[in-house]
Amino acid sequence: MTSFSFRNNILDLIRLIAALQVVVVHSNNHLKLNIDESFMSLLERFPGVPIFFVVSGFLISASYERSNSLFQYYQNRVLRIFPGLWFCFVISLVTILIFSSVEFELIASLKWGVAQLTMAQFYNPDFLRTYGVGVVNGSLWTIPVELQFYIILPVIYWFFRFSSKSLYFAGSLIVFLLFIALSLVFFEFKANNETLLVKLVGVTVFPYLYMFLVGVFLQRRINVIEKYLYGKFYFWLALYLISSYLLGLFNFTVQGNYLNPISAILLSLLTISAAYSFPKSYSTLLKGNDISYGVYIYHMLVINIFVEQNLSGSLIYLAITLACTIALASFSWLMIEKKALSFKHYSLRKTIDTSHTKLESS
Description:
66% helix, globular, disordered C terminus
């Protein structure tokens, strides 16, 4: 194994694997593929969305620290999210028009369009409830959460930047535990009450912020990665699986997006350990093509076409879904996202290693 380096990781590959996990789970559920239950049970113990959240905290905090200004930071975030998202909206309209007989209502359509193009992608008008699975692109509920992460991150940095050393550590712990508590309260309410308020809270940062903060913490304490996570993937994998099994015996949630906090934190540590336990050459398999975002935002469009055409029950549809999704994601990356990212004022991949010992030691 090569010597430890902050840049020597396979986070791009991990994000793609996480996105593919989401595709397989959604395909199995909506296309009634009846994939072996034991395999799906294991797969759902590695949910893609929590992995995205911790990786996001890790990478976005590094991006923020390298930005010359708050404007530049937000500009870079906009360039990463919205061009692909807007193109996805266009593809959504095309698929609805071609594969369904939905009658668009003017006012509701305008509301839906504004929501899809801004940061309320969870909104789905009644006239679209008859299309596909009932939601045009349900996966996009995470986009508002991600955008809120971007907004709140500078606030978190601002708070701790002006804190004393003792307040920094105490405050970090208090904030972290507070958001774990909020997450537990939300998941308990969600299990028993599917009210509008609960649904709206579910698309805020509050139930998931502690996962994002784990990523931020690890990026800011790179020595923790080097000492406890680097090259120790199999240890953390074994610990995660054993703990997942034991927690499952006590009826803790150990599958899906709403993991119990112990499992979520261990999965976060496992994710970053995986990023730093394999040769960087694994990441070069993608040849710099970061299609994970596209895979995530386009796959439900393909699945909805199959559902609308009453095609289900065969693994061939999973293969076609994967092929079409990867094709769409690749086109989006090469023709839309990559071109948009060229307007960024810096590239995280091109930045030289910086010292991480500067962080909050004063």
